[in-house]
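SAMPLE LOG
Freezer: B-3
Tube label: C17
Construct: single chain, 523 aa
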Amino acid sequence: MATSLYEQYQELGALEAVCVAFFDLVDSTHLKKQMGQLRGVDLALKHNQVAAEVCRRFNGRIIKHIGDSIMVVFKIPLEGILASIEFVQTIHLNQYPFRTKVGLVHGIVKKVDINGLDYLGNTVDRSARLTSQSLPNQILTDETTMDMIKPFLMDFEQLISRYVGMRELKGLGSIPVYELALATTGFINEETLVPEVQFNNSNAVTGVVGKKTRKAASRARIELPPLAELTSAACEVKDAMLGKMLEQWTLTREDLDNIAIGYENICHTLEKAYDLNIARLSFSGAFARGTMVKPLEPVELIAVMTPPADQYREVKDTMQRLVYFLSQGYLDSVTVNNNNIVISLQEIEYMITPVLAVINDGRGQFMVPKSDFWISANPAIPEQWMEQAVKRNGPTFLPFIRLLTMWQRVNCTVLNPFHLELLTDLIASQIKLEISYESIYQWFRYVYNYYGKIKKPYILDPSKSNTYIDEYIFASSPVFNIFSTNLTSSYNTTIQGVAYHRAGKKGKSVAKWKELFGEYWQA
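STRUCTURE (predicted):
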């Protein structure tokens, strides 16, 4: 006879829903080695004592001391969060010579009595694993707990929170993780300070200083576009100052990691948008083509949707649904700009364009929004074109375009970035482009001559059949005049700059390159 649900439930024992928190002394082994075993133990006891006192004020129950850490349970997660933040603040205010790591999770646990009250279960394990992932004075929690306290965060304006990515927890799999902190102290960066205790001549503790260290978190690796991760290290630099410019303004590993975390956050938020049938969120635009430089402009994304044929939404309805779901996530702001959704997240902006993948007359095609309608277009073609262009032109091609992007941002914003890239590919088929002043001069000479002779569009747009990427230049007299004026002025600047360079007049040459690249030039 099958066991009833009630009997199965009874076998589980005493269950409770609580918030489990661990407070773990940072680098206790190092402290004991530095201070001596007895004094190190005293410091660990002080850590546990202060943590316990703070937790009790927020109705926390001290369950057990585990060496240099304590386990505490709270009735509700808000109490656990507030106690954790106040403990970290207490460490700062009193300048205690130790740091803590905190992980807390709300969930169902099994209540047991093994030489005293204890709790067992997945919630306890998850909290302990989060504690091990935490950096010094960092407070981490999971999404379930975060969702429970989110409505109350508006009542505590001094509290801030952020998504820190998917983390791999040993034995538990990959989960979304969040950090909470006080606005006055800010979030904890991965490059952090390990406490180094100081002593006076009497061997008494006088304070603590920080020793920089970097902890590699067990974060799930996000696959970024290959071109975005392509550095200029592999290309030959003819003129050192241009190489320094590239080094300074090309996206760093930290920039790429921050972009990846934001992308992951958006992906995770849109997982709940079931009715939109989002198949994939992909990088697009200058970032995907590897031509983006700092300061960061909006990182373009395309949300590819695969709705059944009879469930296509109007453009306006699609945008509204996307905004609704994105607003439920942990994003700083969500706004609509024409047919794009602009998201601000930890000082990085993302611009999402919805894309439909449809079957018409038995053939697959992509549709993108234009005003209130869906039109046929493949938004991935520019990235596919760039992959071939890099293979065709070699390792210098992308770094050279990044230099030109710096010029375009300073002196020719009317020029479309993709137009700039196609134009550079055309010139690269005529001359060898290097990271040198001579090549920059040659590029401007060719462009000036092209647009001085040709009076109509001539560069085909690979993403749109029978259209030209430079059509916008010729379609409007004001736009053409601005482009022509900017190009002529910059060409004259390079003529003078390269002439001074050839003559060995470094000071005058530098003045011209600074005029060309503006804020990007660091002489």
